[in-house]
Amino acid sequence: MIVLGIETSCDETGVALYNSAPWENNAPAHQGIMGQALHTQIAMHRDYGGVVPELASRDHIRRVLPLLDEALLAAQLELSDIDAVAYTQGPGLAGALLVGSAFAKSLAQGLKLPSIGIHHLEGHLLSPLLGISAPQFPFIALLVSGGHTQLMLVSGVGKYQLLGETLDDAAGEAFDKTAKLLGLDYPGGAALSKLAETGQLGRFDLPKPMLHSGDLDFSFSGLKTAVLNQVNKFLSTGVSDTQEIARFHADIARCFVDSLVAVLVSKSEKALKQTGCKHLVLAGGVGANVQLRTALNASAKKHGFEAHYPPVDLCTDNGVMIAFAGALRMLADNNGSTTSGAFDVKPR
Ligand code: KG4
Ligand code: ZN
């Protein structure tokens, strides 16, 4: 079965073609990736310091059809080779989701194919199965993106149990807001991480929110505020030496990343212990973070679990994860989960 995947939930237009044959034959799942095309709108939104929903929707409209052509070309497939169309149904920006939903459903109707709405987070959650060292079920997924931070017990395709989540900012959101405080361009997560690499360990005593809360929930808004307080304190000293300012930025970035990573790792360890799972999967945009991967690897060694990562290009939003989740859903439900003709998106 060849599934076309369409992702338009936020500021990336992703289109991909996935062949379920390797999965069905117990071969490595990544062998099913036939072709993909991706356009990121980051440059367009940068001037506004965040995603402008109306601009995002319009750009998805402009891009989606050329990207489909590009993905088909990459996969060396024709429209007539497609067996089903999967699209991101939510959560995300309503207008942006509607573009993908309307496009996917119209195409499916025109080609007389089934269409299936996919939960964006399920796409992220299953994408580690596309990695070189794919995990076995059951596993714990640490899902860290711009909009979500969750710990999930994944027992199989469609079998997910939420163990804990953020009570306020998502991890990626905390990264982006802190990066903005330090004058980095939106979305600053990756740049902040890079800056932190040059920073000094432990110069600032930043909080590790909810580290000892006893549950598996998170909270990151206080950490961001603690950085803001340090920035204001530094500015009030009137320092003008550019080297000293650069050092401050790097050191505060380092301490921010260390605090956030410490909480993510500690709660992941707790989730593994609580469920008896031996496999941890990192998913979502923040999953590209080097410090987090390094800390999880160290923890895995110490506590005897295995850490799995999706390929870095599949950490952030993309069409492959939607095509893949669509294929797995169709197989698991024997096509029972395909959706009707209505443009039913679920922004929340
Ligand atoms: O999963 P994603 O592409 O979109 C959402 O569904 O939210 O995640 C985007 C988030 C952004 O907040 C971005 O700053 C963050 O992932 N991100 C990173 C890194 N790369 C992307 N955060 C920290 N370190 C990185 N290397
Ligand atoms: Zn995402």
Quick summary:
By secondary structure, the protein is of the alpha/beta class. Helices cover 44% and strands 18% of the residues. The mean pLDDT is 95.
Provide a descriptive summary of the structure in words:
The model has no long low-confidence stretch (mean pLDDT 95). This protein is α/β, with parallel strands linked by helices and 348 residues long. The strands form 2 sheets. It has a 5-stranded mixed sheet with strand order 3-2-1-4-5, with helices on both faces. The chain has helices at residues 21-24, 42-46, 53-75, 94-111, 120-126, 171-181, 189-197, 221-236, 242-275, 290-303, 320-332; strands spanning 2-7, 12-19, 33-40, 84-90, 115-119, 139-144, 149-156, 159-165, 279-283, 306-308. Strand 1 and strand 2 (12-19) form a beta hairpin. It has 11 helices and 10 strands. The protein has 2 domains: 2-127 and 315-332, Nucleotidyltransferase, domain 5 (2-Layer Sandwich), CATH 3.30.420; 136-309, Nucleotidyltransferase, domain 5. It binds 5'-O-[(R)-(carboxyoxy)(hydroxy)phosphoryl]adenosine and zinc ion.
Fourth-tier CATH superfamily name of the largest domain: ATPase, nucleotide binding domain
The ligands found in this model are: 5'-O-[(R)-(carboxyoxy)(hydroxy)phosphoryl]adenosine, zinc ion
CATH class descriptor of the largest domain: Alpha Beta
Structural class: alpha/beta
Number of strands: 10
Per DSSP, what share of the residues sits in E-state strands of 2 or more residues? 15-25%
Subcellular location: Cytoplasm
Pfam family, one: TsaD
Enzyme class: transferase
Main location: cytoplasm
